[in-house]
Amino acid sequence: xxxxxxxxxxxxxxxGFLFTVVCGFAASWIVRKVSxxxxxxxxxxxxxxxxxxxxxxxxxxxxxxxxxxxxxxxSPLIGFSAVLLLATMLWRISFVPQELFVGxxxxxxxxxxxxxxxxxxxxxxxxxxxxxxxTAREMKLVTSYELPLVLAFIVVIIKTAALVGPKQQLNLAxxxxxxxxxxxxxxxxxxxxxxxxxxxxxxxxxxxPEAETELASGVLIEYSGAxxxxxxxxxxxxxxxxxxxxxxxxxxxxxxGVGGILAGVGKYxxxxxxxxxxxxxxxxxxxxxxxxxxxxxxxxxxxxxxALAIIGSVFNIGWL
Amino acid sequence: xxxxxxxxxKSPWVFHVNTGACNNCDIEVVDCLTPKFDIERFGMKLVGSxxxxxxxxxxxxxxxxxxxxxxxxxxxxPKPCVVFAIGACACxxxxxxxxxxxxxxxxxxxxxxxxxAIIAYVPGCPPKPEAMISGIVKALSAL
Lengths: 320, 143
Known about the structure:
The complex is a heterodimer. By secondary structure, chain A is mostly helical.
C-alpha cells in the first residue's frame, strides 16, 4: 500500500505532474521574457503562462463538425501524458539515480517521439485544410530530425560504454555521470541534438508546422478552449523535459547534494537560453531546407562523430 | 468576480480581421506590438487562428465580399469574446458611407448573428495605438 502511495506521489506531485507543470510555466515565462528583452520590450508578467491556461480552461471548446471527434479530443491527452512521463523519468534519474529499470534509454527515445505523433494525429483529425498542410510538414520534420537525434544519442552511448565498468549496467543514470560534450565527437553530437530539440519544441527556425503567418497556427488551428490548454501545458512540459534530456545525456546531469542540484539547474538554464537565442536570431526555414539541413549536414556530422567516438573508444583516446 | 472573466482580462489574445480597410489601421494595430507600446506586458498576444482568440480587432467598413468572412470568423471564435471596431470605417463606414459596395458597419453585421455580442468602438483615422490600448482596457473593465 505504501509503495502504491509513494509511486502516486512520484507521479502526481513530486517530481511528476505538479512540480513539472510549475517548472514548465516558469520555463515558458523565461522564453517569453528573454525573447522580449532581446527585442527591447518589457515582456509578460511572471504568472502569464498560468493566466493563459486558466483562461483557456474557462473558454468554450469548439469541435469542428467534420472532425474525427474521439481522436481530436484524445490526442492532446496522449501527447501530454507521454511528455509528462518523460519528465518524471528524467527528474527521477537526476534525484534518485539508484532506483532504475532496464532499458530506460529506449523508453526515453520512444517517449520523445510521442508528442509529435499526437500532434500529427490531432491535426489530421481536425478536418481543416490548413491543419493538413501543417500535418504534412510535421511528418516530414519528424522523419528528418529523428535520424541525427538518434545518431547523436548513439555517440553518447559509445562514449559512456567506454567509461563504465564491465559489470555496471549502461542506463541513463550511468550516462548522466559523464559529460560527453567535453570531447570532439560529443560536442558535435550536442550541437546537432540541440538543433533537433529546437525542432521538437517547434521553435523558430523550425516552427514550419505551426507557421503562424502562413498557416494560421497550422497543426493547432482548430483547437480551442480546454483542448488548446492541454496543448499549451504539453508545450510547457516539453520545455522542461527536452532541455533536461540534453543535460542528462550530454552535460553530465545533476550531481549529488545541493551543489550538484544547483549545477544541474545552471546547465538546464544554459541550454534553455541557447535555445531561446537560436529562436530569436533566425528566420523560419522552408520544409525542404529543414530536411536538407537535418539529413545532409547534421546526418554527415553525426556519421563523422560516431566514427570518431568508435576510434576514440577502441584506441582509448578520451578527447576524441 | 467570476474566474473566467478574471482570467480573460489577464490574457486577452487578439485576432486581426481586415474587412476592407485601407491598411492604415492595420499598421497601427501592429504598432501595438512594437517595443514602444508592447501590449504583451498585459498578456495580450496576436494569434493566428480565430479559434484561439478572445478579441477580434476588426478594421475596415465591411465590403460585400468580406461580410460572409466576418460572420464566419465571429461564429468560429469561442465565447466569451469581444469585438473591437477599430477606426472610423469599422465604427461607422467613415468616408465610404455612400459607397455602393459597403454593407457594414461592423456592429450591425455582428448584431445580426449575435444580438448579445460585446462590441467596443475605437474611432480615428487611423486611431493611435494609445487609443486602442485605452479602448481595450475600457472594454475589458466593462465585462
